[in-house]
Amino acid sequence: MAVTMLVLLSTASLAQPIPPTPRPLPPPADLTSVKGLGNADGTPLRLQQKWDGELTFEIAPMGQYVEGIAGQDGRSVSVQINARPLIRDALAEWTAAGLPLRAVSPGETPSLRIGYGTLALPSALGWTNVRGPVHEVTLSLRNIARKAVRLYGDMTRQGVIDSRQVSLNDFAAMLTSLTALHEIGHGLGLLHPDAPSGDELGARIVTLLGAIQHPLQPSIMIGDSQVFFTLAHQALGRPVGPGDIRLNQRDRIGARIMWNRNAAHLLILRQMQCALPSPSCIASQ
Ligand SMILES: [Zn+2]
Q1: C-alpha dihedral over 89, 91, 93, 95, to 10 degrees?
Q2: What are the tens digits of pLDDT across the range 91-146?
Q3: Which of 19, 31, 59, 156 has its CA 20 to 30 A from that of 4?
Q4: What are the entry keywords (predicted)?
Q5: How many angstroms separate the CA atoms of 234 and 228, rounded?
Q6: Angstrom distance (rounded) from CA 242 to CA 42
Q7: Residue 71 in contact with residue 88, Cβ under 8 Å?
């Protein structure tokens, strides 16, 4: 009986071949490397030393953000973002990547301070300042809400997101998660894969992991959210959902290198490139 069933099943599957899934286009190679902040000698900053082994965060309080925004047809649409739990989830994702993140204790100075603010450039959804002892992450919920309204129609028309499963508010939450993961990544010393782009803090940029041709997921550190969504859609072969806004494996490794280089990582660092000229950099080439 078992044999007969097997034959029937295999005949049925032969009669109805599964259509091949379209092969996703690889992203440009300059969008697949993992880059980070370096010291003057061309080695990555070692954040474990900067914060004496403690990696702590503080999130500014924020209730539900609500704003009426004019859509493409001129009618006002209401966008609601509950940012704090999304930021907490983003921190949990980085913690699961192997970083020892914990909430700051009262009276302690955090390593990362995450808050909200106004950013002049409308395309900037977040900003991170890594110059001081505290790395300051600022999210612009106003710009995120506007970008969500601006992109939602195009993204659903292109099939990048499915409007039956992802509402405008869901999409705004996905953009907030993406921005929080990305900006915390900057706070952990990571830069855009295609850096240097002239806006990278004037700091030395080191390549932590070289470019590859076929990543399964785009890097969370891609600087343009629309490009991230498009590449995620290509890689998945289906519309992007809230569960797809995640770090890829190389983002996780890159952040661990920035936190604490170990022997295995030093091998990778031999491939390091100096992006900005300096005497030590030129000498090592
Ligand atoms: Zn960025």
Answers
A1: -140
A2: 999 999 999 999 999 999 999 999 999 998 888 999 999 888 999 999 999 999 99
A3: 19
A4: Signal
A5: 10
A6: 37
A7: no
What's the gap in Å between 182 CA and the centre of ligand 1? 6
Residues 83 and 62 sit within 8 Å (Cβ to Cβ): yes
Question: Mind listing the domains of the chain with CATH numbers?
Answer: 25-283 (3.40.390.10)
- Give 114's contacts (C-beta < 8 A, 6+ positions apart): 57, 58, 59, 60, 87, 137, 139, 180, 183, 184, 187
Tell me the torsion sign for CA atoms 218, 221, 224, 229: positive
| Distance of CA 33 from the midpoint of ligand 1 (Å) | 14
